[in-house]
Amino acid sequence: MHHYHTVGVGAGPANLSLAALFESAAPHQIALLERRPGPAWHPDLLLSGVRMQTSWLKDLVSFVDPCHRLSFLNYMVTTGRAWGLLNAQFDFIPRQEYAQYLRWASERLGCIQYDTDIDRISFDGGFAYHAGGEVVATSDHLVLGLGSKPYAPPELAGVLGDRAFFPEELTARLPQLDPAEPIAVVGGGQTGAESVLELLGRGFTRISWLGRRPWFQPMDDSPPGNDFYRPAYVRFLQDVPQETRRRLVDDHVLTGDAITPGTLRAIFQANYDGMLRHGEYPVTLYPERDVVTAEADGDGLTLHAVSPVGREEHRLAHAVLATGRQPAEPPLDPELRERIELDDAGELMVESDYSLRWKGPDGHRIFALNRSRHTHGIPDANLTLLPVRSATVINSLFEREIFTIRDTSVSTRWKVA
Ligand SMILES: Cc1cc2nc3c(=O)[nH]c(=O)nc-3n(C[C@H](O)[C@H](O)[C@H](O)COP(=O)(O)OP(=O)(O)OC[C@H]3O[C@@H](n4cnc5c(N)ncnc54)[C@H](O)[C@@H]3O)c2cc1C
C-alpha cells in the first residue's frame, strides 16, 4: 500500500485531466483509483454512430497546456489517423474516437489502479481508501471524480426490470427484443435521442418517443450560448449571489442538456426513409408528455402520460428509460461525511476552487469535480473546461500559480464593473 500526495477516486475524463496536468506540478504524486477493469468511457452508451457534442479541441489538457504530450492532436498524429479524421470532415467526431483517445491517455499516465471499487473513504490524519475490506492507498488530499449514474424518477423506477430498462442495457437487450413489437423511449435528451436512433437502425418499426419538453429541443450551440462555457463566465458566476446564480444556471439548460441538431436530423431522416419503406413512420414523437406512472405485467407495460390536452395511456412491450442522470454518491465514511458542509439543498458546498468546506486539519483538502453545476454552471458536467478546472485545483493545492488560465478577450459583459 502506497501513500500519495493526492488520490483521485474515479478515472473518468475529470480525474484523467487532473492527473495529466499533475505531471507538471508534482510527477508521480497522484494515483487514480477506478472500479472498472480498464480504461473505458461510458462504454454501454457507445451506440452505433454516436458523435461527440463538443469539439475535439476540448481535450484533457490543451486549453491550459497546448504543448502537453496527452493532447488530442498528439494522439491523432502519433496514431497515424490525423489525416483520415481531418478528411472525413466530421462536424463532431465519433464518440468512439474520443473514447479511444481517453484510453490512449490513460495508458500513458501510468498512475491508474483499475479493478478498485472504493467502498469507503475514511480520514484519520490522512485519507484512507478502502476496497473489499482492505485499505488500498492513503493520501494527504482527496479528489472526487465519481461522475454520474442513470436515474429514473420514483414513479417509474418501480417498472425497471424485464420490461423497462436504462439505455445502458439497450445493446445487451437487443438480441432478445422483437423489432416488430411496440417499444417506447422515455426522455427527450441526447441519450433518449441516441436510443431512438439505435432502435431505428436495428429495424424497429413501432417506436414511441416521449419527452417532457414542448418539442424535442436542440442544443443551443450558438456563439452566445457557448459564452457560458468559458473561464471568464465561470469567474463571473462566482461573485453572483447563490439564488441568482441558481436561476441563471437553470436558464442555460438548453446549452447542454438537449439534443444535438445532427442527431435530430438523423432521426427525422431515418424516420422518413422508414416511412417510404414501410408505409408508416417507424417513430411516433410524443412531445410535452409527462409520464406520471407506469405498470408492468406479464405481457408488457403501460405508461400513463399527461399531455397539455389530457391524460393518455401507451401500451408497449418494452420501454427504455432515458430519464436523466444523477451524481454518484461519494463513498464517504459516516464520520468523514459529518465533517463536510452541505448547502440548504443538502448538496456539497463547492468553493470557487472546487474544494469542499470541511472540518479537517490543515494540509488535507477535499475537491469535488463534476459536482458544482449550481456554482460553476452547466460546463461543470461537460468536457469543455476540464483542463481549466484541473488547473484551478492544482494551483489551489500547491498554493501558487502553476498554470495560468487565460481568457481575457471577451466581447460579452455580464456585469458592468
Ligand atoms: C453518453 C454520454 C456522452 C457524453 N458526451 C459528452 C460530450 O460529447 N461532450 C461533453 O462535453 N460532455 C459529454 N458528456 C458529459 C460528461 O462530459 C461526461 O459524463 C464525462 O464522462 C464526465 O466525466 P467524469 O470524469 O466527471 O465522470 P465519468 O466519466 O462518469 O467517470 C467517473 C468514473 O468514476 C468511477 N467510479 C465511480 N465511483 C467509483 C468508486 N466508488 N470507486 C472507484 N471508481 C469509481 C466510474 O467507474 C467512472 O469511470 C457525456 C455524458 C454521457 C453520459
From TrEMBL:
Asked whether the UniProt record includes Flavoprotein among its keywords, one would answer yes
Pathway it acts in?
A: Siderophore biosynthesis
Which keywords, in A-to-Z order, does the entry hold? FAD, Flavoprotein, Monooxygenase, NADP, Oxidoreductase
Q: Do you know which SUPFAM superfamilies this protein is assigned to?
A: FAD/NAD(P)-binding domain (SSF51905)
For this protein, the record's Pfam families field holds: Lys_Orn_oxgnase
UniProt xrefs under Gene3D superfamilies = FAD/NAD(P)-binding domain (3.50.50.60)
What would be an example GO MF term here? L-lysine 6-monooxygenase (NADPH) activity
- Its domain of life reads Bacteria
> What Enzyme Commission number(s) appear in the record?
1.14.13.59
Signal sequence range:
none
Q: Which cofactor does it need?
A: FAD
For this protein, the record's InterPro entries field holds: FAD/NAD-bd_sf (IPR036188), Lys/Orn_oxygenase (IPR025700)
Carries keyword Cell membrane? no
Reaction it catalyzes: L-lysine + NADPH + O2 = N(6)-hydroxy-L-lysine + NADP(+) + H2O
Sequence similarity: Belongs to the lysine N(6)-hydroxylase/L-ornithine N(5)-oxygenase family.
Q: What is this protein called?
A: L-lysine N6-monooxygenase MbtG
Name the lineage: Bacteria, Bacillati, Actinomycetota, Actinomycetes, Kitasatosporales
